[in-house]
Automatic annotation (TrEMBL):
GO terms for molecular function: FAD binding; fatty acid binding; pristanoyl-CoA oxidase activity. Pathway: Lipid metabolism; peroxisomal fatty acid beta-oxidation. The keyword Flavoprotein applies. This is Acyl-coenzyme A oxidase. GO terms for cellular component: peroxisome. It comes from the Eukaryota. One of its GO terms (biological process) is fatty acid beta-oxidation using acyl-CoA oxidase. Its cofactor is FAD. Signal peptide: none annotated.
Length: 668
């Protein structure tokens, strides 16, 4: 039973998994990740067992790991050394999201906000951020406001050459700010700017909140911790912050595009409030872009652990007898439950990598101070796609971990499987940086704004250009199912855009307010529109990558199998809507789609184990008794079990006395 079969499954593959890994991730990225893992293995602070740490223990460990990472000196500015930064963050994300959060929130969220919204007067602060002389946090969310960021209630009032910060009520207290509870010395904080009695709207500021020598908070600021949380987030210092007449210098205003003169006049170079908002929205997308990768990593862990364990786990067989039992991976239902998430892990990675390239170009243009209609359009498109891709990828990720846990049977529930912890770790990805259903509305709002321009839509990333033509209904399947899937998505998205817009106009004519209209078009319409647009872009970008960038025939072939499964898996979820919208009639289209989906799962089977190897983190990072690359799941399980042999907890003495007492009473 313990003899591993994993190598037998590896030999079934038609490709070299190492070459696939290099093709998808890039050789340099693979090499840099390996270097990071080697550094981690050489440092005792990164070694761990399956013991559950307390909150204080987790935070101290993360602090010590962060110090070690800083000492490595891999990079200063994430945007000037993207390769090193991405390799480090991805490895840390797989190892422990708590550790990566400490790094990412400081450099990529706090640091990026200061850089993109600040000016020359913030240069010293940028240098201190890059040199890790300070610790940064990002404070947008409030007790009473998360999704509706425009209405946050913290105020920054110009008074005698300074800015006075206040939290006017309990709902205005800042919260969910990582790094804030204990470590942050500085924060980027969003507040309503009041100048001369007028509210100029939401602005970003950067202020010092603690003395870096004593770590005591500055006057007018109260900071605390938010208490216990599940999973790795126990180790993240999510804090709350209340202002009571805290005075900060005027230079605190992140003044790219706007400022306050010394005599108290508000000036801005933005042509409109919407232009200022669109630039800010694009800047805030950096967090959502990182969360897309969390969905990818969740699918990676789920498929790696569950598929490897499905080879080690043997249940039932064509004949009775233990010797006739077969690996559960042989069962088509097990394959159907797991292989789509394997394909999702690969496809989301390819999509996210392309998105990062586009976003990096966008951020560089923002930091160079460009102001143009084209950049404003770029910002909206980035915002639309990130607001759609974050929900799609995180829902898939959390879903995959739940399915993997169940597919691993009882042992999947063990802490050492890591699947339960990972489920807790990834659960908040569905709500932070915007609750998924809420931010999907931002995607549909931007798409609905294009309705009057159908036929002439031009966007920097070309994600909406397919809406310029009226797509045709289904006629027949071609030799390339992915092309057929994209055709179905084009029809679906176009139809949902038209019907959602038509429904909105109908509600407006009936006397509904714009607020009521926006809410009443969500169910079955706007939400589905956002998802369809996003999934079309994902599939389209992955197909272009395979066609244009993968020359090796064996790799190209296997990636087409992967994309084929991913695209059919996603489209099948829209089957009812496709029929309702008239894309197809009769049962033939749906039956053939499902038949192709089953065939796509079957075609992945011989490739599955090597596909897993191409995405799986090093065992040191994976840290799963069920998912180790040697396939010896039961040996690893028993190794952990034996650590608890013949335990004698303190309360056993009390149990013995209690039983003895009951025994004596029964004799009486």
């Amino acid at each position: 039973m313990s003899a591993p079969l994993i190598d037998k499954y590896r030999k079934l593959a038609t490709f070299d998994w190492r070459k696939l890994k290099a093709a998808v991730e890039g050789e340099e990225h693979v090499r840099l990740k390996a270097e990071v893992v080697a550094k981690m293995k050489s440092e005792p602070i990164f070694h761990r067992d399956y013991r559950v740490l307390s909150r204080e223990e987790q935070r101290e460990v993360i602090h010590q790991r962060w110090k070690k990472i800083v000492e490595w000196g891999l990079f200063k500015d994430p945007y000037s050394d993207l390769e090193n930064f991405h390799a480090l963050v991805e490895t840390l994300e797989a190892f422990d999201q708590g550790t990566s959060a400490r790094l990412f929130l400081h450099g990529n969220v706090f640091g990026a906000a200061v850089k993109s919204m600040g000016t020359e007067r913030h240069k010293d602060l940028v240098e201190k951020t890059e040199n890790n002389q300070i610790v940064g946090a990002f404070c947008l969310t409030e007790i009473g406001h998360g999704s509706n960021t425009a209405e946050v209630q913290t105020t920054a009032t110009f008074d005698k050459g300074e800015l006075v910060f206040n939290s006017p009520n309990v709902g205005a207290i800042k919260c969910w700010a990582g790094n804030l509870a204990h470590s942050a010395t500085h924060v980027v904080v969003y507040a309503q700017l009041h100048v001369g009695g007028k509210n100029e709207g939401l602005h970003g500021f950067v202020i010092q909140v603690r003395c870096p020598k004593t770590f005591k908070t500055l006057p007018g600021i109260t900071i605390g911790d938010m208490g216990s949380k599940p999973g790795c987030w126990q180790g993240v210092e999510n804090g709350w912050m209340e202002f009571k007449n805290h005075r900060a210098p005027l230079s605190s205003l992140l003044n790219k595009g706007c400022d306050i003169t010394p005599d108290g006049k508000y000036v801005t170079s933005f042509k409109s409030a919407s232009e200022k908002q669109s630039v800010s929205l694009g800047t805030l997308s950096v967090g959502r872009l990182g969360i897309i990768a969390k969905g990818m990593m969740a699918c990676t862990f789920a498929s790696t652990i569950a598929i490897r364990y499905s080879v080690a786990r043997r249940q039932f067989g064509p004949e009775k007898g233990v010797e006739n039992e077969i690996p559960v991976l042989e069962y088509p239902l097990q394959q159907y439950r797991l292989f789509p998430y394997l394909s999702a892990a690969i496809c989301i990675r390819i999509f996210q990598k392309k998105f990062v390239e586009h976003f990096t170009e966008y951020m560089m243009r923002v930091m160079m101070g460009e102001k143009s209609e084209e950049l404003s359009e770029f910002s909206k498109e980035v915002h639309a796609l990130s607001s759609g891709a974050k929900p799609v990828s995180t829902w898939l990720g959390v879903e995959s971990l739940g399915e993997a846990r169940k597919a691993c049977g009882g042992h999947g529930f063990l802490h050492m499987s890591r699947l339960n912890t990972l489920r807790d770790d990834n659960d908040p990805s569905q709500t932070f940086e915007g609750e998924n259903f809420m931010i999907l509305q931002q995607t549909s709002n931007i798409l609905l704004g294009k309705v009057n321009n159908l036929g002439s839509i031009r966007t920097p990333m070309s994600t909406m250009s397919f809406l310029n033509s009226n797509p045709s209904k289904f006629s027949s399947w071609s030799s390339n199912p992915v092309d057929d899937v994209l055709s179905a998505y084009r029809y679906l998205t176009y139809h949902l855009l038209q019907t959602t817009s038509s429904e909105a106009n109908k509600l407006k004519k009936s006397g509904k307010s714009s607020f009521e209209v926006r809410n009443e078009i969500q169910v079955h319409r706007a939400v589905n529109l956002s998802i369809a647009y996003t999934e079309h872009t994902m599939i389209d970008w992955v197909q272009k990558f395979i066609t244009e960038e993968v020359d090796d025939v064996t790799l190209n072939t296997v990636l087409r199998k992967v994309l084929n499964l991913f695209s059919l898996f996603l489209l099948e979820r829209h089957l009812a809507t496709l029929y309702i919208t008239g894309y197809a009639t009769g049962g033939k289209f749906g039956e053939e789609l499902r038949e192709k989906l089953r065939l796509a799962v079957e075609e992945i089977k011989p490739e599955a184990m090597s596909l897993v190897d191409s995405i799986a983190p090093d065992d040191f990072v994976l840290h799963s008794a069920l998912g180790a690359s040697d396939g010896r799941a039961y040996d690893h399980i028993m190794e952990e079990f034996r650590k608890y042999s013949d335990e004698q907890p303190r309360w056993v003495c009390d149990l013995a006395q209690f039983l003895q007492k009951n025994s004596q009473n029964s004799k009486l």
